[in-house]
Amino acid sequence: MAAVAELIRTEADGTLSFGNHLLASREKLDGFEYRGDPYKIKTCRELTRLERNGMLVYESVPDTSVAHFAEEEAGVHFTVEGGADVQLTLGLEEDAEYSVRINGREMGRMRTSLGGKLSISVELSGPEEAKVEIER
Predict the structure, then answer these.
(1) Which domains does the chain have, with CATH numbers?
(2) How far apart are alpha carbons 116 and 128 in whole angstroms?
(3) What is the DSSP letter of 62?
(4) HSE toward the beta carbon, residue 25, CA cutoff 13 A
(5) Residue range 72-77: average pLDDT?
(6) Cα–Cα distance between 34 and 28 in angstroms, integer?
(7) CB-based contact 45:21 (threshold 8 Å)
């Protein structure tokens, strides 16, 4: 998987790819239309953040590149790449329980906060990618 040169794009399968963990300086794009909603992406070496209608969808510290991000009624799944271990925060349904899998390995069940945020850590060493699946 490679960084997303255009910061955000819609893939042929209808999913989103976004972020560029290789950027030296901060870049952002506001007003990207996807399924009738405006999205905003900010990415740089310290952070990648995706918002829909001003609300958090995805955030990573440090930055990441994300491929084939798909939100469905049952949850979300995507592939993430970065140069180091990352902390991910996802905006999901408030006060709900989700099963988390990373590279097919069950990480357990986690509950979102009252604000609907779910935070997980993903171990990435060097140019490595991980498949993340979060299901309700």
Answers:
(1) 8-135 (2.60.220)
(2) 28
(3) S
(4) 0
(5) 92
(6) 16
(7) yes
